[in-house]
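Lecture notes, unit on protein representations.

Consider one protein chain, 123 amino acids long.
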Amino acid sequence: QVQLVESGGGLVQAGGSLRLSCAASGRTFSSYAMGWFRQAPGKEREFVASISVSGGRTYHADSVKGRFTISRDNAKNTVYLQMNTLKPEDTAVYYCAAAPGGVASSPQRYDYWGQGTQVTVSS
């Protein structure tokens, strides 16, 4: 089992920045690719970004490319999502997740999920 806990969400004005963190329990964090997803009310969970086991490869959804950056620190068992130039449409609950089979954009590929952190961007 891997337990994930997100933090860093909050209320920010459009154009502002936030950094989300996801802390993983246990000693197996470095064997999982990690991803960030988000879900707004009435919408399906949406892929945001993913990162390989070593951190050498990253993928970002077109909607956030150039604004958001995923990173990880395996020594700290933590994955981050730096969010810049935030827009009101970024408002959602953000979830981190762990995948045993490498980087992926499909939520079905991820075995473990955090409980989410709310990000609200005001216009």
